Amino acid sequence: MPQDAVDDLVEVLDLEPIEVNIFRGVSPDEDRQRIFGGQVAGQALVAAARTVEPDRQVHSLHAYFLRAGDPQVPVLYEVERLRDGGSFTTRRVAAIQHGKVIFNLSASFQVPEEGFDHAVPMPDVPAPDSLPTMRERVAEAGIETAPWFDRPRPIDIRHVDWPGADGIRSTEPHQNVWFRADGRLPDDPILHTIVLTYASDMTLLDTATRPHGRNWFDPSMFMASLDHAMWFHRPFRADAWLLYAQDSPNATGGRGLSRGLVFTQDGTLVATVMQEGLIRRVR
After folding, report:
1. For the whole prediction, is pTM greater than 0.85?
2. Residue 118 lies in a domain
3. Out of 37, 173, 182, 236, which residue is the most buried by the measure of CB atoms under 10 Å away?
């Protein structure tokens, strides 16, 4: 059931405290060669948030994926308390496996305050309930998937402008994707921010491959996140529909740069995402 998958995700994100500023996270029981980047980013943000006063909400994060994570081994998260100011709190988190740092995250938290307010409008796109699920898209295309893909997934993804999974059609470097947690989440606002961080690593790098007729289904491609940045603007729920409006301004040197704006269904801009990743042709 989708709610079970969402509950499992919340459990995966709930780190075990080991010592002051040190936490341990595990991966779900899936047949993956490496840890999903959104998982380690989400867990690192959990570790940072556990050391911050609850009146402060995360407003930005900047992260580097340094090594592939081993899903069979727990990840140790070490938090460094860089600053506790009157309005802002800053944390740095190192994710460690086999004695090496595999991921590094800096996160900034802020006490809510009033100020200037403006935002760009949401694109005019079809409603999410009118669109097929990712599973339905893949089944229609007859794509053979890994066993973990066929299990209930915690994030429901609906592509507005699906290019097809055959990887042969070139399209413009932009796409719109609806997504949400496929079940009810607890009300804690920081958890919704963490789930969005987890989901933000999905589909974004694909945008950089669209002009080249490629995608993550293509066995001739190797794709991996290099760095990831997010800014959180306004409150939202990650178990309500969010539109991920994405584009890719550049690809060169085996790297693709993608950016995304995240809107609630009523058109409120709640987050901005930037990511660069490897998009190498391996055969």
Report:
1. yes
2. no
3. 37
Task: Quote the Cα angle for 258-227-203, to 5°.
Answer: 40
Residue 238 lies in a domain: yes
Tens of pLDDT, residues 6-41: 999 999 999 999 999 999 999 988 777 899 999 999
* Residue 29 annotated in active site: no
Q: Is 187 part of the annotated catalytic residue set?
A: no
- Residue 143, burial from CB neighbour count under 10 angstroms (0-12, 13-18, 19+): middle
Sheet strand arrangement including 75-84: 16-19, 22-25, 75-84, 88-97, 100-110, 57-65, 221-232, 269-281, 255-264, 242-252, 174-181, 155-159
Integer Cα distance of 242 and 262 in angstroms: 6
Q: Which of 156, 182, 201, 239 is an active site residue?
A: 201
Say whether 201 is catalytic.
yes
- Domain hosting residue 248, numbered range: 2-113+126-281
What's the CATH number where 140 sits?
2.40.160.210
| pLDDT for the residue numbered 65 | 97
User: Which of these, 108, 103, 18, lies nearest to 68 by C-alpha position?
Assistant: 103
Predicted confidence (pLDDT) per residue in 170-199, tens digit: 688 999 999 999 999 999 999 999 999 999
State how many domains the chain has. 1
Catalytic residue among 39, 225, 246, 258: 225
